[in-house]
Amino acid sequence: MIDLDDIKEKIRTAMESQGTYTEDLELCISLCAGSYVAFKIALNDITKKKKSYVIEVSREGNKKLVAHPSFKVLFDSLEVTRKQLRELGLTLQTLSSSDDDEVTDLINEVNKADDDE
Q1: pLDDT 10s digits, 53-107
Q2: Which of 8, 63, 72, 88 has the fewest CB atoms in 10 Å of its CB?
Q3: What angle do CA 35, 100, 49 make, to 5 degrees?
Q4: CB-side neighbour CA atoms (13 Å) of 70
Q5: What is the Cα–Cα distance from 47 to 66, expressed in whole angstroms?
Q6: pLDDT digits (tens, 9 = 90+) for 9-53
Q7: Contacts of 8 (CB under 8 A, 6+ apart)
Q8: How far is CA 25 from CA 7, 40, 106, in A?
Q9: Could you give the C-alpha distances from 68 to 7, 46, 109, 114, in angstroms and in order?
Q10: Can you name the residues that pair with 66 across neighbouring β-strands?
């Protein structure tokens, strides 16, 4: 599973390489890393499912199909992560690191999922 401290360190490293890191941004870095972990957990949960819906039973006993709750978590955390990365100055345009940089991979994954909505 993804380690929160590893993600925070990768974000810090990317910001330091751009010259934008300050300790004042630690809260934003923690929030960004946390929302990314939530995104990865929801993505992992969804990939194990064979259906995109769950069956809910109402108080009256009626069954209805609703979207799997992990989809909402996935898209909410995706959007939050994307916005937080942008606030930290970590976008594809600002990163000048190599293609195999893990923060670049993180941003690419979030952007790809956002495009798939």
Answers
A1: 999 999 999 999 999 888 899 999 999 999 999 999 888 666 555 445 667 777 7
A2: 63
A3: 45
A4: 17
A5: 17
A6: 999 998 998 889 999 999 999 999 999 999 999 999 888 988 889
A7: 29, 30, 33
A8: 14, 23, 19
A9: 27, 8, 21, 18
A10: 54
Amino acid at 19: G
Among 8, 5, 20, residue whose Cα is nearest residue 96: 20
